[in-house]
C-alpha cells in the first residue's frame, strides 16, 4: 500500500490539505492545472474576518509547500485517469511544459522583450502580461513560464522569435523541453480540492456587465482594492479613471435562479460586506 496522497487542485484548500498530510508524514502529490498554486485566495486583497492581507497569509504556505520534502508539486498538470481502488490507486497525469528551468532567478529580463501582450488573468483581465510571465510575484513552483499557446514560438522550436531566451542571463528558457509529458504515480487516497469558478455575469444582461466598463465582478473589484493591483489600490472607474461617487453592490447574481444555479453560493453576502467596508475605508 502506497503512503502517498494525491491532492487535485492547488488553491488554499489543497495547499492546507497538502501541508497537514505532509506534516503527518504522508507523501503528497499536489496537482495544479495552472502555472502556480495559490488559487483565488492569492488574488484577493484582504481576508474576512481578520482583514489581513490575503497573499501575506497565503504566500508563506505556498513557499512551505514548495520546499516541503514530502510534497511533490506538479503545476500545469491534470489527472488523465485514476485506476485501482482506495488504498491502491494508480494515477496517470499529463503535465505541460513551462519552458523555464529551475535556474530562473526571477530577474524579469525576459518580460519587456516579449512582443506578445495578453490580458493578465491574475488581475481579472484588468492589466496585461506577456507570453513569458510570472503569474504573481509569490508564485510556486518556480516563477516564470512561457505561455506556449500564445508564444510566437508555438510549436516549440519553430523559432520565429527567440527574444526571451536571448535576454535571459542564466539561459534558463529552453524550448527543447518536450511540450507535454505523461506521469504515473501511486496513491492510497485522493482529495479533490478543485475550488470554484465565477459564473459569467454577462449572461444576465440586465446588469450591463460586458456592455458597460464600470460594471465589475467582485473578483475584479478585489483587484482594484489591492495595492498590488492594476490601479495601485485606487478605486477608480475603468471608463474614465475617476473615483466613483457611489457604488451599488448586487448580490446573489445567478444564485437561487432556475436559469443558472438553484443554490445559494453562501459567501457573496460575506465578501460583499467586506468589500463595502474596504470601499468606505
Ligand atoms: C470576490 C471574493 C472575495 C472573497 N473573500 C473572501 C474572504 O475575505 N475571506 C474568505 O475566507 N474567503 C473569501 N472568499 C472565498 C475564498 O476565495 C474561497 O473560499 C477560497 O479561495 C477557495 O479555495 P479553494 O482552494 O477551495 O478553491 P480555489 O481557490 O478555486 O482553488 C482551486 C484550485 O484548483 C485548481 N484546479 C481546478 N480544477 C483542477 C483540475 N481539474 N486539476 C488540477 N487543478 C485544478 C484551480 O486552478 C485552482 O488553483 C472570496 C471569494 C470571492 C470570489
Ligand atoms: S519566444 Fe518570443 S513570443 Fe515567445 S515568450 Fe519568448 S519573447 Fe515572447
Ligand atoms: S530572464 Fe530568465 S532568469 Fe530572468 S525571469 Fe526570465 S526566465 Fe527567469
- Helical stretch count? 6
CATH class of the largest domain: Alpha Beta
Alpha-carbon Rg, integer: 21 Å
Could you say which overall geometry the principal axes of the C-alpha atoms support? Answer: globular
Largest beta sheet: what is the strand line-up? Answer: 5-2-1-13
Going by CATH, the architecture of the largest domain would be 3-Layer(bba) Sandwich
**Class by alpha and beta content:** alpha/beta
The hetero molecules present are:
flavin-adenine dinucleotide, iron/sulfur cluster
Structure description:
- The chain starts with a strand and ends with a helix.
- Helix 1 (12-23) packs across helix 2 and helix 5 runs parallel beside helix 6 (268-280).
- It has six helices and 13 strands.
- The chain is of the alpha/beta class and 281 residues long.
- The model has no long low-confidence stretch (mean pLDDT 95).
- The radius of gyration is 21 Å and the shape is globular.
- The protein has helices at residues 12-23, 54-67, 110-113, 163-167, 218-225, 268-280, and strands spanning 4-8, 27-31, 46-47, 52-53, 71-74, 77-85, 88-96, 117-119, 128-130, 132-133, 145-146, 180-187, 189-192.
- It has three domains: 4-95 and 179-192, FAD/NAD(P)-binding domain; 110-167, no CATH class; 198-281, no CATH class.
- The protein has a four-stranded parallel β-sheet with strand order 5-2-1-13.
- The structure holds flavin-adenine dinucleotide and iron/sulfur cluster (SF4) (2 copies).
Amino acid at each position: 500500500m502506497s503512503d502517498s496522497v494525491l491532492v487535485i487542485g492547488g488553491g488554499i484548500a489543497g495547499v492546507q490539505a497538502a501541508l497537514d498530510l505532509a506534516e503527518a508524514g504522508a507523501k503528497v502529490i499536489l496537482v495544479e492545472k495552472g502555472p502556480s498554486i495559490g488559487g483565488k485566495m492569492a488574488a484577493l486583497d484582504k481576508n474576512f474576518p481578520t482583514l489581513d492581507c490575503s497573499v501575506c497569509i497565503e504566500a508563506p504556505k505556498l513557499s512551505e509547500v514548495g520546499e516541503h520534502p514530502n510534497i511533490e508539486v506538479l503545476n500545469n498538470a491534470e489527472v488523465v485517469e485514476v485506476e485501482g481502488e482506495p488504498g491502491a490507486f494508480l494515477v496517470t497525469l499529463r503535465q505541460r511544459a513551462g519552458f523555464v528551468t529551475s535556474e530562473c532567478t526571477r530577474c524579469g529580463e525576459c518580460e519587456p522583450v516579449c512582443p506578445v501582450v495578453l490580458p493578465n488573468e491574475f488581475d481579472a483581465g484588468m492589466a496585461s502580461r506577456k507570453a513569458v510571465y510570472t503569474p504573481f510575484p509569490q508564485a510556486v513552483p518556480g516563477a516564470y513560464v512561457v505561455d506556449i499557446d500564445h508564444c510566437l514560438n508555438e510549436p516549440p522550436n519553430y523559432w520565429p522569435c527567440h527574444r526571451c531566451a536571448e535576454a535571459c542571463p542564466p539561459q534558463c528558457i529552453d524550448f527543447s523541453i518536450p511540450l507535454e509529458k505523461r506521469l504515473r504515480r501511486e496513491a492510497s487516497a485522493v482529495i479533490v480540492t478543485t475550488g470554484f469558478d465565477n459564473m459569467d455575469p454577462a449572461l444576465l444582461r440586465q446588469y450591463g456587465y460586458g456592455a458597460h466598463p464600470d460594471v465589475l465582478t467582485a473578483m475584479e473589484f478585489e483587484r482594484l482594492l489591492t495595492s498590488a493591483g492594476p490601479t495601485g489600490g485606487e478605486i477608480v472607474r475603468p471608463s474614465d479613471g475617476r473615483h466613483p461617487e457611489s457604488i451599488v453592490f448586487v448580490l446573489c447574481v445567478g444564485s437561487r435562479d432556475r436559469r443558472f444555479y438553484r443554490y445559494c453560493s453562501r459567501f457573496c453576502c460575506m465578501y460583499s460586506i467586506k468589500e463595502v467596508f474596504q470601499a468606505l475605508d
